[in-house]
Structure formats: C-alpha cells, structure tokens
Amino acid sequence: MELQANAALIIIDQQQGILEPRLGRRNNPQAEERILDLLGFWRRNARPVVHVQHLSHSPDSVFWPQQSGVEFQQRFLPQDGEWLIQKRVPDAFCGTGLEARLNEAGIWQLIIVGVATHNSVESTARAAGNLGFDAWVVEDACFTFDKADYFGTLRTAEEVHGMSLGNLQGEYATVVSAKQILAAG
C-alpha cells in the first residue's frame, strides 16, 4: 500500500458520550491508543486531519447537543488548522460539505478511524467508496458494541465489528491495521 502525502485522517465521533457505560460492552480496548498513534503521526507530518462530531436529533442520544457527551474527549480535541465536520446522521458526507472540501484540497485518499464500526464508520466508508475516494478503514482504530441482530440474536462486539469490516473490505474500502498505515507513511 502507498500512503499519499496528503492522505486525510478522518476521526469519527471521538466524543465524551461514546464512553457512556449504558452503550454496553465494546471490543478493541486499545482502539483509542491506535487512533492517538495515527493522530500523532499525522500531526508530526503536517498531514490533514478531519474531526467528525455527531450532533444527534434525539434527546436520548449520548451525542445530544444539550449535554457534555457531545463534546470531544480531551485527547481528541481538534488543533488549529485541523478540520471540524459536524454531522446529523451517521454518514460524515451527508449534508456536511466534506466531499467538496476534500475535492477542493485535492485529497482523494482517506484513512478512517473512530466509532462505531457498524454505524458511522461503516456509513462514512461506504459513502467514501461510492464517491470515488480511496478509503482505508483501520480495523484496530475502530470499535463497536454488542448488538442484537435483526432476528434478536445477541452478537458480540467482535462479531459486529468483523461483519462490518467484511461488508466494507474490497467493495467500499480496504481494511488495514494501524501498524500497516504507519509502516506505509
């Protein structure tokens, strides 16, 4: 794999609310450390960083704008010169102007990390692939939660994560590890 000099790191929904215990059991306990590894690398090399913040329509959401859960975690606060994209749905491209900004900047390679794998990460990666971007999803820099499938069978976070990555691999994105991305940089 070849990492472009202007590849954008897209960090999805690293907000305080994602740490809420009520969201349930999660996988990839080291995901935030992998995200920070990538973020440090991007910042040291002056590559573009895009912070995506979810502003929910639902007062029951951990990302409802009227409470602290909507705020970025301290360790993921955007720095000067980094982009902030605020979204109202899982897909970071829908209604946000992200596609136009990336096109304007001549960025076509996207490294996608964050939460939740089966929700905003998958939705954003699908859109990126459909829009013609070279999308890479970093499997160990994403996580999700235990979730019941359509038929009511509880699936572990690992199963949900694996299925989501399987949905993306090859058709919408390329799934890689943080180590692979850092080695390619």
Automatic annotation (TrEMBL):
PANTHER family to which the protein is assigned, alphabetical: ISOCHORISMATASE HYDROLASE, PEROXYUREIDOACRYLATE/UREIDOACRYLATE AMIDOHYDROLASE-RELATED
CDD domains according to UniProt: nicotinamidase_related (cd01014)
SUPFAM superfamilies referenced in this protein's UniProt entry, alphabetically: Isochorismatase-like hydrolases
Name of the protein described by the UniProt record: Cysteine hydrolase
Gene3D superfamilies (alphabetical): Isochorismatase-like
Keywords: Hydrolase
Pfam families: Isochorismatase
Ranges where the Isochorismatase-like domain occurs: 7-158
One example GO MF annotation: hydrolase activity
